[in-house]
Amino acid sequence: MSENKDRAARGLSRRDFLTRAAVVVGGTAAAAAVPGAAWAVQEGAIGDWAADGSAEAAVPASADANASSADGTYREHNGAAFPADDASPIPPRAVPASWDYECEICVVGAGGGGLNAAARAAELGADVICVEAMGLHGGNAQEAGMCAILGGSKLQESKRFAFPSYPFDAKKLADWAIDEYHYACDPRLINLIAEEGGHCIDWMADCGVQWRLGEVPVYVAPKNSTLDHHVLKMKDATDAMFSFGQRHGVDYRFQSPAQALVQDGDGRVVGVVVREGYGDERYIHASRGVILTAGGFCNNKALLQRYIPTAAMGCASSYLTAGETGECFRMGLGVNADVSGFNSSASFDGGVDWEAEGGQWARFLYDGMTQLSRQPWFTVDRCGNRLRYMDSRVGEDGANAIYALGDLATIQMTPPGHRSYIVFDAHYEDHLAGFAQEHCRKLITPDLEQIDKVPEHYRDWHHGVEDAIGADVLKRRDTLEELERDLGFEEGVLVEAVEKWNACCEKGEDDFMYPMPPAWLHAIKDPPFYGCRIGGNLYGTKAGLLINDRMQVVSTKGTPIPGLYAGWHTAGGACGENSYIGDPILGSLLGDVSLAFCGGYLCGTFAVRNELQEADE
Questions:
Q1: Fewest CB within 10 angstroms: 146, 191, 193, 563, which?
Q2: Domain tally for the chain?
Q3: Reported pTM
Q4: Which candidate, 248, 245, 246, 220, places its Cα nearest to that of 233?
Q5: Paired strand residues for 386
Q6: How far apart are CA 596 and CA 201, in angstroms?
Q7: Angle of CA points 362, 367, 372, to nearest 5°
Q8: pLDDT (tens digit, 9 = 90+) per residue, 74-90?
Q9: How far apart (Å, rounded) are the C-alpha atoms in residues 485 and 487?
Q10: 456 and 564: one domain?
Q11: How far apart are the C-alpha atoms of 53 and 83, rounded to whole Å?
Q12: Are residues 208 and 292 in the same domain?
């Protein structure tokens, strides 16, 4: 075994993971000593990982680590695996005797939403400061593979595409979505998303983003991004929006995580406290408004359990490695903001249960083990019942191939115990080419176009698989009986299920209600045998601060909080309540990165209109 493979087999250290995660988003993993943890970042620094997710964390023995205990009750996640575990409101600060910096609008977050909010507000004439916890712009948005939208952009008009019918009609689209959300949403907000999604994409094009229409016309991507896979496609878009903001005078301040809002005696939000350079606190005066666009709380255990219990139970991991620890949401709670979108989130399939073996909750989507888990393997629940697979090959299915990425997550999240199990044998590599999965299920290999965009460790999917085997997340056993025991099955359950599967493979015809194609019927006979627990792979929280259709944060009294705005996913309500995966299209009426882009664009527009233009009239 080479030195690189030997290192991979031992598993990534937490420091290695932080460094690579920072490379993914263009940031820097700042580290400082903490008592008892040589690797750790400074304790309590917002935007930094808060607890040890290494293999040394205390977890149950493997055989006892099923997703629920023997009596059927939910087994809580190990909080040490999460970047944050705090649901308490962050109270506002009082107005200081003097301010350190002055602006009209302060934008918190420089990911997809924050970049658009800052750029739009500056374009409309506001003096803008944008603060960001990480070292560079882009956040999780640049990792996105596509910008999903159901119609209304010029590119889609050029192809005469719109949903549910052409020509594009925002009211028809909103009506369809509201029905999909079982009427558990604010119709004005959904209509706003339908009306403005296309306008946002077109505005970004005017700002310098060079879009192209995807092979499935419900999504667009930057022209210069690779056609061969989805890794870091949106980096070109976030780079362009950052450049546009710079040209229009936005003052970006990186490595400056927000600590609290500043609220005056009349209840108006008038500023933000940040830790400049992760060091001293600085008070930023935002005389006209504060926009919160720092994402949601995918990586905060306590917030998930309180506001999105289905995700807390059914998701096995998050693939957002940058932030998502929920401080902006908690700041909103601290000024008495209401909450919208209870128990709603967005997930992909194939979340690998690293946490059950003492690993980290948040994993890079293109980690090789995640990619491997998303292939059409023999999949069962803890009772041995087969679970359906949903194909992501485009073929004649069009948009259905994209829907499959989210719908399969629900299938994998909802069995007894909220976990599913994939099993395969020694020949698994021989089957991958025939599976031919597309979109973000495509396995990453060193020969792919623009592979230099991918952090080196992830350029070959084998590395992530070796990491998982070394951590015993992907269990490799000499017998099915050993695998059955160590995955937590009752004796005989998995062995019998595999026997039935093998019989179908030998016949060349699947007798399951949702049969696999004959070419995918691969018997599980030859050791070593492999198995892994999976659930949903969380990528967006849809619970968040309540906003109105002017993007103003609304208090528990039902009135807007003066001076405070929020974009998705700090805001909630984009897909109503009680949604497992946020459909109808990959997270909401707009795909998640599209939703962030659109929310930022709207926040910048309304903040200037409400606080500068109307105030000056």
A1: 191
A2: 3
A3: 0.87
A4: 220
A5: 380
A6: 12
A7: 115
A8: 557 888 889 999 999 99
A9: 6
A10: no
A11: 8
A12: yes
Cβ–Cβ < 8 Å for 415, 408 = no
For residue 277, the enclosing domain spans 101-344+542-616
Block residue for tokens 């056993």: 477
C-beta neighbour count of 288 within 10 angstroms? 20
Rounded distance between C-alpha atoms, residue 55 and residue 600, angstroms: 38
pLDDT < 50 stretches in the chain: 1-72
What whole-number distance in Å separates Cα of residue 371 and Cα of residue 534? 12
DSSP 8-state assignment for residue 559 = S
3-class secondary structure, 433? helix
Q: Which residues contact 423 (CB under 8 A, 6 or more apart)?
A: 377, 378, 379, 380, 483, 494, 498, 524, 529, 530, 531
Strand partners, 380: 386, 421
pLDDT at 2: 36
SS3 (DSSP) at 577: coil
Reading the block at residue 321, the tokens are 């490695």
Q: Which two tokens stand for residue 567?
A: 């974009």
Q: How does 73-105 read in b/e, with b if 16+ C-beta sit within 10 Å? A: eebebbbbbbbbbbbeebebbebeeebebebbb
Q: Classify residue 2 by burial, with Cβ atoms within 10 Å: 0-12, 13-18, 19+.
A: exposed
Question: What per-residue confidence (pLDDT) applies to 399?
Answer: 63
Tokens of 163: 């949903």
For residues 590 and 598, the answer to whether their CB atoms sit within 8 Å is yes
- Is 276 exposed, middle or buried, given 0-12, 13-18 or 19+ CB atoms closer than 10 A? middle
Measured in whole angstroms, the distance separating CA 488 from the mean position of its chain's CA atoms is: 28
Which of 555, 584, 556, 551 lies closest to 570, judged by CA?
551
DSSP structure class, residue 612: I
Give yes or no: residues 23 and 172 share one domain: no
Q: Please check whether residue 86 lies inside any domain of the structure.
A: no
Name residue 131's beta-bridge partners.
Answer: 108, 253
pLDDT of residue 615: 67
Domain boundary among 25, 53, 81: 81
Number of C-alpha atoms within 13 angstroms, CB side, residue 553?
Answer: 34
Chain Cα centroid distance, residue 317: 10
CA separation, residue 423 to residues 418, 436, 480, 500, 514 (Å): 17, 19, 10, 13, 18
408 and 516 within one domain = yes
The residues facing 106 across adjacent strands are: 129, 290
Amino acid identity, position 305: Q
